[in-house]
């Protein structure tokens, strides 16, 4: 049931991505505005994910999971009924509440699973969260071709309603609680600086990067972000625990998640648009929605398969090497996409290799976070990691939109150079992520090991070691 919930949320992240151009035409809007169908969803998830994780830790993860699934259903209903771009974006923002599914699922695994099975279960859920995005892009074309784009919302609505019913019936309620109040001021400050930043990034190309509005929004974003950190550090019940964020194992994993999210979500948003560009623009494949989704299918497949195998690699070579390798593999393929604009097979191959890299990174990061914090903070800590990845995705989609649409052809389509510059920027994000990953604290081959006293081998890392099963060795997924 947890796997179904995580997959359903991930599908909603990407189902609309290949059909943004069709939504744009049907709702009579422009390319920059329709991008907020994706960006608004990611922004809402960025804000709601840590809040939902904290609420789950306090009042019960099962209860909050069911509530979040109902929220996803309501958002799908609003978006499915939308006849203009405003209600469509509102529906997608409501769906963004579903970002809380990931921390709640990780928390339930931590509370209910035998300790030796936690790494494998977390790795699988993390892989499903990433792979679902790719699968959504693949499924979007057939759904739209046979039923129409409104069914991109009706079908998830049906699935999430059923998931909420089944979750209520079969998932046990955890007895682990974190008795603390939830402050609204940090959430307000978080949402304010994110909105200011995303508006500046997405509209800077039109307004001018040195225009008064762009500079004012950027300065406001930095000022409010500083205020948010100040409030969080002094709050008796912070939304995001800044002391926890300072643990080397946590801040490095979160920094990598931010950069990988930046590149991954932007790629999801714009690779289909590149493929759908008609040949009259001088590039692109003139692909249908279904064809553009199939080009991304290799990424989803390799991401899932590698995610399942990543635990073995972590035991053999350690988590740091796995994460660095994954980032560099993805960077090389993204750089190839910046130059490979002539043949479809080049995109199939590049996307498959990107999936290998991202699959290695995401499944490993989730286990690092779950192992790094006390059990009662699993929900909020994993929520922060998912949240930071989503924030990265929000920024990445906005930056990519600004780069791609910075120069347009007379027919309104982006120039090829916009995509080239955009994909190179995403490759740079992966390289930077690899550089940050080099700072991940060194651990044993099993990721976290104990000495003969039973204490963590590296207690300064903020890591909590998993107990081996009786008569066996720890298992990692």
UniProtKB/TrEMBL annotation:
**InterPro entries of this UniProt entry?**
MFS, MFS_dom, MFS_trans_sf
Q: Region (Disordered): which ranges?
A: 450-477
Location in or out of the cell: Cell membrane
Taxonomically, which superkingdom? Bacteria
| One GO CC term, this protein | plasma membrane
Residue intervals of the Major facilitator superfamily (MFS) profile domain: 1-445
- Membrane topology per record: Multi-pass membrane protein
Question: Where are the compositionally biased (Basic and acidic residues) regions?
Answer: 450-460
Keywords, A to Z, come to: Membrane, Transmembrane, Transmembrane helix, Transport
Mind telling me which CDD domains this protein's record contains?
MFS_MMR_MDR_like
Q: Name one GO molecular function term.
A: transmembrane transporter activity
Composition bias, Low complexity: 465-477
Q: Which organism is it from?
A: Acrocarpospora macrocephala
Instruction: List the transmembrane segments.
Output: 31-52, 64-83, 89-109, 121-143, 149-171, 183-202, 214-231, 251-271, 283-309, 321-340, 352-374, 386-409, 421-440
Write the protein's name.
MFS transporter
């Amino acid at each position: 049931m947890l796997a179904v919930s995580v997959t359903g949320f991930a599908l909603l992240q990407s189902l609309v991505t290949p059909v943004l151009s069709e939504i744009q035409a049907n709702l009579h809007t422009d390319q920059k505005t329709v991008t907020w169908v994706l960006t608004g969803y990611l922004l809402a998830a960025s804000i709601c994910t840590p809040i939902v994780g904290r609420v789950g830790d306090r009042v019960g993860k099962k209860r909050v999971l069911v509530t979040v699934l109902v929220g996803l259903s309501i958002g799908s209903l609003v978006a499915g009924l939308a006849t203009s771009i405003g209600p469509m974006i509102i529906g997608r923002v409501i769906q963004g509440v579903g970002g809380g599914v990931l921390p709640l699922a990780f928390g339930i695994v931590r509370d209910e699973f035998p300790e030796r099975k936690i790494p494998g279960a977390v790795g699988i859920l993390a892989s499903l969260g990433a792979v679902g995005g790719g699968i959504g892009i693949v499924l979007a074309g057939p759904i739209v071709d046979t039923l129409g784009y409104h069914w991109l919302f009706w079908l998830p609505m049906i699935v999430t309603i059923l998931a909420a019913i089944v979750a209520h019936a079969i998932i046990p309620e955890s007895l682990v609680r974190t008795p603390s109040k939830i402050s609204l001021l940090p959430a307000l400050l978080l949402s304010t600086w994110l909105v200011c930043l995303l508006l500046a990034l997405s509209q800077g190309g039109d307004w001018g990067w040195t225009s008064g509005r762009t500079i004012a929004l950027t300065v406001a974003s930095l000022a409010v972000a500083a205020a948010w950190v100040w409030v969080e550090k002094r709050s008796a019940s912070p939304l995001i625990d800044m002391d926890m964020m300072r643990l080397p194992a946590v801040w490095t994993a979160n920094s990598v998640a931010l950069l990988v999210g930046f590149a991954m979500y932007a790629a999801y948003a714009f690779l289909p648009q590149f493929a759908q560009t008609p040949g009259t623009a001088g590039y692109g494949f003139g692909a249908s929605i279904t064809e553009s989704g199939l080009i991304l299918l290799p990424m989803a497949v390799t991401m899932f398969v590698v995610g399942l195998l990543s635990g073995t690699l972590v035991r053999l070579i350690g988590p740091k090497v796995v994460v660095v390798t994954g980032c560099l593999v993805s960077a090389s393929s993204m750089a190839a996409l910046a130059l490979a604009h002539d043949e479809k097979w080049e995109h199939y191959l590049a996307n498959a290799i990107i999936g290998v890299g991202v699959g290695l990174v995401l499944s490993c990061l989730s286990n690092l976070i779950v192992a790094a914090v006390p059990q009662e903070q699993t929900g909020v800590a994993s929520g922060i990691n998912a949240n930071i990845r989503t924030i990265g995705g929000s920024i990445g989609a906005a930056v990519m939109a600004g780069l791609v649409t910075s120069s347009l052809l007379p027919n309104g389509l982006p120039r090829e150079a916009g995509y080239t510059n955009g994909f190179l920027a995403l490759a740079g994000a992966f390289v930077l992520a690899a550089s940050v990953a080099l700072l991940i604290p060194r651990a044993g081959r099993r990721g976290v090991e104990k000495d003969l006293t039973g204490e963590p081998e590296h207690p300064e890392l903020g890591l909590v070691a998993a107990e081996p099963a009786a008569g066996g060795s720890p298992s990692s997924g």
